[in-house]
């Protein structure tokens, strides 16, 4: 109840500030909550096309990107394309630049972006603005974008468009060639099923010269959040946990538990991770994991670590009943807020971010384009530090549809209700059926606790 009241207060404060600006005569119709409200198309289709007059656009990243990262990813390109635009960037940090605190001040935010997981803050704090009319006005062709990315944001926008995808991501399998060479095993290839992948991983699991190596370890959070069955953590139809769905058991057994049965796996957990699952550092720094899933930003963000050994990547394996379908995508969405006074200028910026020009540069840097354009996809990584790697692995499989969970509050993150139980399952402290049942009960209790406040 408290969280709902706080969100209502934020919305009321912003609405009152807006009403004070337009004057007493217009107050009643503008603030009555009708079709002219902040998320309606009231000014998207009426404003003039952007001019060359100087304008300041305020950008905010929900994902806490540094200003340096923002400039590298889009800021410098926007400045070059729009010399009349001055950018003010606000990095999200704890304290006064946290979104909750900013919205209690007079600071306006024009554009806000975040990942598939973090973008929900746009809705949480009432910043959503339906860009449908602006999209039409500025001739933005959304059909050029992967349909699943557009459909996912439409579902979260009540059929409108509260955001537009401009970066994409999914999981491919990175592998350490040096480990495969030590064991004399052929490298993995695109198009493997999980059963084939498991048999390959067994061949590069064991000890050589006193060093233990494990064939594969999942990224536990992504294994759950990006599962190929598109299972949400909370059912949008019932508003309750999905952990009772038998497919969760299939996912955990297929992508983790059968690998973790090997004593070498548990040895690596105890030696390198102190009872935790092998992770990115175990693959990149300790270099005792032969294969590990990762997104396209891995070689960009962790370039120095990736330069230290011989690696490549292949498409993620697929389930027998889902052959040809890999993990879900994990896009970044960018939104124009309802408080922006420069919506046309902001829309032109977004139009640029999904243009062939920008998306080609993004792809050549090693990032994953949101466009369906195969020519742009084929250029992935051409200007990056690791040209020649098998970046086509990211496009080999069909992307699983993005899971659509319910807009339900819970006092605990439902993701951790299961991931916190993975090590106890591996250690034999709890069986998988009991763990899933407990996770389901925990999530539902968390939902009930919030709803009863």
Helix content: 40-55%
Q: Under CATH, the topology of the largest domain is which? A: D-Maltodextrin-Binding Protein, domain 2
Whole-number radius of gyration? Answer: 24 Å
CATH superfamily label of the largest domain: Periplasmic binding protein-like II
Structural class: alpha/beta
What CATH architecture of the largest domain do you see? 3-Layer(aba) Sandwich
Stretches with pLDDT under 50, minimum 5 residues: 1-48
The top-level CATH class of the largest domain is: Alpha Beta
Strand % is 5-15%
Q: How many runs of DSSP E, i.e. beta strands? A: 12
Measure the end-to-end span.
5 Å
Q: Give the rounded overall mean pLDDT.
A: 89
H/I helix tally: 21
Overall 3D shape: globular
Describe this structure in words.
- The chain is of the alpha/beta class and 453 residues long.
- It has helices at residues 2-22, 27-31, 67-81, 99-102, 121-124, 132-137, 147-155, 177-183, 194-203, 220-225, 246-260, 263-272, 280-284, 298-301, 303-306, 343-353, 356-365, 374-378, 414-419, 422-426, 432-451; strands spanning 55-61, 85-91, 111-115, 164-167, 172-176, 206-208, 211-216, 289-294, 311-315, 325-328, 332-336, 398-400.
- It folds into 3 domains: 1-31; 39-168 and 330-354, D-Maltodextrin-Binding Protein, domain 2; 172-328 and 402-451, Periplasmic binding protein-like II (D-Maltodextrin-Binding Protein, domain 2).
- 40% of the residues lie in helices and 13% in strands.
- A 5-stranded mixed beta sheet has the order 2-1-3-11-4, sandwiched between helices. A 5-stranded mixed beta sheet has the order 6-7-8-5-9. Strands 10-12 form a two-stranded parallel sheet.
- A hairpin with a 2-residue loop joins strand 6 and strand 7 (211-216).
- The longest helix has 21 residues, at 2-22.
- It is globular, with a radius of gyration of 24 Å.
- The relative contact order is 0.15.
């Amino acid at each position: 109840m408290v969280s709902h009241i706080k969100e209502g207060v934020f919305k009321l404060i912003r609405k009152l500030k807006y009403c004070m600006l337009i004057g007493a005569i217009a107050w009643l119709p503008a603030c009555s909550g009708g079709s002219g409200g902040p998320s309606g198309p009231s000014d998207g289709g009426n404003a003039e096309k952007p001019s060359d007059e100087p304008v300041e656009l305020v950008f905010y990243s929900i994902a806490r990107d540094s200003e340096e990262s923002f400039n590298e990813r889009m800021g410098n390109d926007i400045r070059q394309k729009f010399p009349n635009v001055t950018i003010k960037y606000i990095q999200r940090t704890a304290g006064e630049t946290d979104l909750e605190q900013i919205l209690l001040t007079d600071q306006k935010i024009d554009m806000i972006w975040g990942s598939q997981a973090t973008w929900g803050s746009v809705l949480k704090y009432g910043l959503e603005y339906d860009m449908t009319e602006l999209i039409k006005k500025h001739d933005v062709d959304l059909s050029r974008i992967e349909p699943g990315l557009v459909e996912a944001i439409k579902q979260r926008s009540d059929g409108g468009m509260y955001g537009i995808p401009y970066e994409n991501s999914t999981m491919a399998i990175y592998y350490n060639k040096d480990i495969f060479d030590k064991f004399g095993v052929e490298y993995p290839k695109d198009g493997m099923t999980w059963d084939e992948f498991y048999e390959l991983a067994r061949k590069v699991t064991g000890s050589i010269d006193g060093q233990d190596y494990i064939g594969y370890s999942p990224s536990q959070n992504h294994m759950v959040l990006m599962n190929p069955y598109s299972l949400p953590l909370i059912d949008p139809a019932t508003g309750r946990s999905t952990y009772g769905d038998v497919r969760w058991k299939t996912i955990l057994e297929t992508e983790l538990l059968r690998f973790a049965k090997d004593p070498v796996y548990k040895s690596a957990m105890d030696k390198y991770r102190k009872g935790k699952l092998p992770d990115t550092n175990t693959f990149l720094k300790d270099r005792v994991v032969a294969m590990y899933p990762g997104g396209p930003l891995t070689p960009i963000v962790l370039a120095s670590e990736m330069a230290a050994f011989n690696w490549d990547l292949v498409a993620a394996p697929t389930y027998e009943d889902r052959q040809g379908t890999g993990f879900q995508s994990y896009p970044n969405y960018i939104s124009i807020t309802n408080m922006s006074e420069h919506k046309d200028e902001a829309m032109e910026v977004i139009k640029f971010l999904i243009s062939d020009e920008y998306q080609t540069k993004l792809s050549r840097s090693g990032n994953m384009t949101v466009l369906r354009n195969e020519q742009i996809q084929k250029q992935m990584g051409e200007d990056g530090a690791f040209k020649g790697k098998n970046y086509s692995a990211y496009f080999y499989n069909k992307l699983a549809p993005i899971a659509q969970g319910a807009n339900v509050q819970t006092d605990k993150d439902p993701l951790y209700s299961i991931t916190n139980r993975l090590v106890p399952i591996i250690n034999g402290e709890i069986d998988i059926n009991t763990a899933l049942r407990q996770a389901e009960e925990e999530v539902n209790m968390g939902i009930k606790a919030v709803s009863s406040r």
